[in-house]
UniProtKB/TrEMBL annotation:
Transmembrane segments: 71-94, 144-169
GO MF assignments: ATP-activated inward rectifier potassium channel activity
Organism: Champsocephalus gunnari (Mackerel icefish)
The protein's name in its UniProt record: ATP-sensitive inward rectifier potassium channel 8
Keywords: Ion channel, Ion transport, Membrane, Phosphoprotein, Potassium, Potassium transport, Transmembrane, Transmembrane helix, Transport, Voltage-gated channel
Amino acid sequence: MLARKSIIPEEFGIPGLASRMPRKPVFRDRVNKARFIAKNGSCNLAHKNIREQGRFLQDVFTTLVDLKWRFTLVIFSTTFVSSWLLFAMSWWLVAFAHGDLDPVRHNGTHCVTDVKSFTSAFLFSIEVQVTIGFGGRMITEHCLTAITVLIMQNIVGLIINAVMLGCIFMKTAQSNRRAETLIFSRHAVIAVRNNCLCFMIRIGDLRKSMIIGATVRLQVVRKTTTPEGEVIPIHQIDVQTETVVANNNLFLLAPLVICHVIDKHSPLYDLSAMELQCSDLEVIVILEGVVETTGITTQARTSYISDEIQWGHRFGPIVTEEDGVYSVDYSKFGNTVKVTTPRCSARELDEKPSILIQTLQKSELSHQNSLRKRNSMRRNNSMRKGAAAGGSGGLRRNNSGIASTKVQFFSPGDGGQSMNAVT
């Protein structure tokens, strides 16, 4: 049985109308992924299944410097106590072989005086290695073996002390300690600057000692797939900044706004405001320089994911001049203000420059309208105040006039001749 043909034409039916309606682009929800660089600059990377663990022992000094303080102190304490015990055993064997432990032997022929047990040998070992010298126990010239052990213990003690002092100095003067006072803005912003769509961040230095030869590098890290089908989980793309002149050196005297122009060479060229929120990119910022006081190269890092990039904002001013001195208010370091910015990508702005012109014109008109509203509100408020002041004065005058008016009443008994006046 054939189906009956509908009275309404197919092109005007619900399926036909739905097919002709313009569809908005559908964006996938962004999958929460791990950050490659944390906000404090630490690398979020775990090394697993390292089979050649012996490579770390080939560079013992760097391994000790990279260890945490508690492990370093435990290692050095264990090393000192082990060396004292080792040489205490050596001194006890020397005394035993020479017969110093025999109380019958005369004191003048002892290798080490007053070494009568392992405990006294251990105390003498500590005195020799840390050069305390209490004076109760001492070495004599009667035993060449004791002199040799003394020389060996002094050399080993000096080596342990040198390694320990060098390790402690390097751990206390590490470059990442200086990076604690190099700060980045909590959010990055995208706005129009010099008629171009720009990606901007703010950096600053809390110390008065400057960073010499400071440089800033930006990288975009994202998962990409090559035309051959190869998946690159961490694809690092270098991003150029405006300060590319003179090897990108910065004079980091006051907080600076680092600007990246989103042009056709930028990895952000095809991203609009909506697409940015759904993307999984991560912008890494690396600040490098030489510490002025120590001459050590330092590096500070941070990153911004799509949730931390504010579209249509810019940083507010924080540097003011007060009594001939420039003052920086760090409480406003990360403050941003909302500005009119096209929501389309930089590619669309290049293809249709009228979008930017129309946006700027709308912004100017809205700004003028807001100024007119403010001025009209101020005039209305002033007129209301003036009217209120005039009304209170007229009311006082009217009240005085009413109080001075006289009301006359006729007395009927007097035939209308006499009157009583009441004020």
